Amino acid sequence: MQSPTQHHSAARSRANRRGELRRALQTFGCLLLVVFAARSASASPTDLDASFAANGIERRENSAQNQFDGVAALALQRDGKVVVVSECLRTASSPFTPNLCLHRLNATGSGDPSFAAAATVVTPLRENWYAPQLAHGARVALQSDGKIVIASTCESAATGNDFCLARYHGNGAIDASFGSAGVVTTSIAAGSGADVLNALAIDAIDRIVVAGGCAGVSTGTDFCLARYTAASGALDPSFGNAGKVLATFAPNLVLDEQANALVIARNGDITVAGQCARSASEIDLCLAQFTNTGVVKSSFGNAGVVYANPSGAGVSERAYAITLQFDGKLLVAGQCGSLACLSRYSASGVLDTSFDAAYARSGVVSIVVSGAISSAAMAVSVLPDGRILTLLSCNTATTYASVCLSRHWPEGFADTTFSPTGGALLATPLVIQNAADLLVQSDGRFLLATSCRDTTATMQDSCVLRLQGGPNTARQCSLDIDGDGVVRPDTDAMIFMRAMFGFDSSRMLQNIVVGSSATRSDWFSIRDYLVNQCGMSIRSQ
Asked: Is beta strand 82-89 parallel, antiparallel or unpaired with respect to 69-76?
């Protein structure tokens, strides 16, 4: 048994050890803060990630004798490897043979030796780069078993421009069970008309869906889609007319409609985004929605279609990318007049007027990039914290088709932590051009598909860039729903419970007094917070 003196001495010793541990933890915490502060101060989201490939750029010359080359599409595997599809010229003199080249990278940017011994695979598709109205080149998507599907417009002597697809195993070998020796060719327009493929997606049961613009009735082009079975790539007889859909919405049948992008909702609805000529002098951004069976969904927009001309009559607008937000809303990126733009729609095609840079409730945001005189948004992605990342093709006073990025908050206003205007022109040691595709890795870093060249060269190579990204914040959910710094039962708890029970927007804030210090004082901003930061599933209202 310890004496009182021994007991007090032991207690003092334990107290001293606890104090030392507390001071050590405090010191360690301070060091971490210093490290992270220094890291965040030194790295910009648009800086090249030097740990990837050669100082942030994986550069590959696929074409013969310095002919034109450029990455067209990227796909991110579950294991972090990156599938890269490039447009390449394999012949050095006329007749040129436009083709597609395929390779795969490890997460570090090195060639993956398990895929064709880290070499480039030349696809059996002869792509037609020069197809009329071609908005996107080749596309790539992954099936759940890891097989790689690529799709493009290709040229046929008999039927003109067609939809062409090829499928590969995970080791880079062509999948002979797909179509004919690994290739599927589909002619949608009658005769030798022009079928231009711009979009590719895989649905929940691995069926392959493509969309584009096809010669339809009279001399115009129409929205067109095709769906193929997961196993063999045969046209899916349960979709449209024997696997094909040709749909016209334009008031004048000789005018053109073109699908440039598509997205598939959880219920199987397919929304395509593109452009529609409403008159000889006006092209509008337009969306159309189809059911899981390929029928125009009449409850979407106005009898299945939405037209938008935010820049006013006589100005061209086009959609080049579309994605789904966490709450099921449709986020559309493209070009409105001379500037890249973002817009947001409900699942039923109603413009979401809560989405606007200045809270003017217009539903459309123009993307401003300092130094760019014109721009177009080519790809869009929703980050884990709800912010919106957009890849743009930008023209400056001296450079054509430069690469830009923008980031916006879920409410639509510019993220000034990314750049003062939300948009940034990339600065790299090489000349980077032709923004084609965008991926966000699980750690928040950005992968870009481009072409690149030395400052003194004229021809370009295929390039994949990785940028630092960040700050990589996860969802930041708090019980302070209205953002006034205090959690109150008569405001925050009531709002949360009503959202949980599915109250509609007209009743959500009824008889709730939100204070003047609240940063989220209306249902639009509160809903976005609950969906994007708290992961809540809220029905569209």
From this structure: antiparallel
Q: Tell me, what DSSP letter sits at residue 32?
A: H
Alpha-carbon span 73 to 141, nearest angstrom: 9
Count Cβ neighbours within 10 Å for each residue of 87-115 and write b for 16 or more, e otherwise. bbbbeeeeeeebbbbbbbbbbebebbeeb
What does the pLDDT look like over 464-489, one tens digit per residue?
A: 999 999 876 656 678 888 888 889 99
Which span out of 140-144, 505-509, 522-526 was modeled with the highest average pLDDT?
140-144
Quote the Cα angle for 156-160-162, to 5°: 75
| List of residues 6+ apart from 254 with CB closer than 8 A | 218, 219, 220
CA–CA separation, 187 and 156 (whole Å)? 9
Read off the amino acid at residue 293: T
What are the residues whose beta carbons fall under 8 Å from the beta carbon of 339, sequence distance 6 or more?
Answer: 366, 367, 368, 374, 375
The CA distances from residue 277 to 214, 225, 251, 518, in Å, are: 14, 19, 9, 44
The answer to whether 305 and 249 have CB atoms below 8 angstroms apart is yes
Question: What is the b/e burial string over 7-21, where b = at least 16 CB atoms within 10 angstroms of the residue's CB?
Answer: eeeeeeeeeeeeeee
136 has pLDDT over 70:
no
First to last CA, the chain: 72
Q: Are 517 and 484 in contact (CB under 8 A)?
A: yes
Q: What percent of the chain has a predicted confidence (pLDDT) above 90?
A: 49
In whole numbers, what is the pLDDT of the chain averaged over residues?
Answer: 84
* Range name among 28-32, 68-72, 517-521 with the lowest pLDDT average: 28-32
Are 175 and 95 within 8 A, CB to CB? no
Beta bridge partners of 407: 389
C-alpha distance from residue 524 to each of 195, 468, 477, 490, 521 (Å): 41, 31, 17, 19, 9
Question: How far is it, in rounded angstroms, from Cα 133 to Cα 439?
Answer: 25
Phi, psi of 13 (to 5 degrees): -65, -45
- Name the E strands within 204-325: 208-215, 221-228, 244-247, 257-264, 270-279, 282-290, 305-308, 317-324
**pLDDT classification of 37: cutoffs 50, 70, 90:** very low
Would you say 167 and 193 are in contact if contact means Cβ atoms under 8 Å apart? no
Please give the single-letter amino acid code of residue 510. Q
**What is the rounded distance in angstroms from the CA atom of residue 520 to the CA atom of residue 190?**
54
Whether 450 and 459 have beta carbons less than 8 Å apart is answered as no
Query: Which of 271, 258, 257 is closest to 325 using CA atoms?
Result: 271
58 has pLDDT over 60: yes
Distance CA(347)–CA(270), nearest Å, equals 11
pLDDT in tens, 229-279: 999 999 999 999 999 999 887 666 567 889 999 999 988 999 999 999 877
DSSP 493: I
User: What are the C-alpha distances in Å from 178 to residues 181, 228, 233, 279, 320?
Assistant: 7, 10, 5, 42, 29
